[in-house]
């Protein structure tokens, strides 16, 4: 295991200093030390799971309860008019630290925050019914 594998767990345990904004039994949230904008906050499970689909239900539920509260607090504290929530899974998706984490990134009128360009494509309607059914089948 590399230092990056345990970085967030060590931050949550207090072994590495951080600017904590929230914590409970399952969740720890702190300011990003390399922020894209003022108030950029990371929300992590205390225990390392590399990808979102690996989370136990109780940890996923705790994240689901905490994220809206933390996002609201970040926006109220910063006065940002908008924000992005970003979560990457796997190196190919841009995940630099192999520990599930959500970025709450305030967006400001000056353009600071998460740069984005959404290169949308058209849904292939000949494939869509089968794809939707296949995805739903894995949820059953």
Protein traits:
single chain, 140 residues, alpha+beta, five-stranded antiparallel β-sheet
Condensed summary:
With 140 residues, this protein is an alpha+beta fold. It is built from 3 helices and 5 strands.
What layout of secondary structure does this protein have?
Elements: H1 3-12, E1 20-23, E2 27-31, E3 41-45, H2 57-78, E4 82-86, E5 102-107, H3 128-139
Antiparallel strand pairs: 1-2, 2-3, 3-5, 4-5
Q: Could you explain how this protein is built, in words?
A:
The chain is globular, with a radius of gyration of 17 Å. The chain has one domain: HIT-like (HIT family, subunit A, 2-Layer Sandwich). With 140 residues, it is of the alpha+beta class. It is built from 3 helices and 5 strands, in the order αβββαββα.
CATH architecture name: 2-Layer Sandwich
Rough outline = globular
Beta fraction: 15-25%
User: Which sequence of strands runs across the widest sheet?
Assistant: 1-2-3-5-4
The separation of the N and C termini measures: 35 Å
CATH fold topology: HIT family, subunit A
Mean pLDDT: 94
- Number of domain modules: 1
Series of secondary-structure elements, N-terminal to C-terminal: HEEEHEEH
* Structural class by secondary-structure content: alpha+beta
Helical segment count: 3
C-alpha Rg, in Å? 17 Å
- Main β-sheet, in a few words? 5 strands, antiparallel
- Low-confidence region ranges: none
In CATH terms, the superfamily is HIT-like
Number of distinct beta strands: 5
Return the CATH class: Alpha Beta
């Amino acid at each position: 295991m590399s230092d990056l594998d345990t970085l967030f767990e060590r931050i949550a345990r207090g072994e590495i200093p951080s600017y904590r904004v929230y914590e409970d039994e399952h969740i720890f949230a702190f300011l990003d030390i390399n922020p894209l904008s003022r108030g950029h906050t990371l929300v992590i499970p205390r225990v390392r799971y590399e990808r979102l689909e690996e989370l136990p239900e109780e940890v996923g539920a705790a994240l689901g309860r905490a994220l809206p509260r933390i996002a609201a607090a970040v926006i109220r504290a910063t006065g940002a008019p908008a924000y992005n929530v970003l979560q990457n899974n796997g190196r190919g998706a841009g995940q630099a630290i192999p520990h599930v984490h959500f970025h709450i990134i305030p967006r400001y009128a000056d353009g600071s925050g998460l740069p984005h360009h959404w290169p949308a494509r058209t849904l292939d309607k000949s494939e869509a019914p089968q794809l939707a059914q296949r995805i739903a089948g894995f949820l059953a």
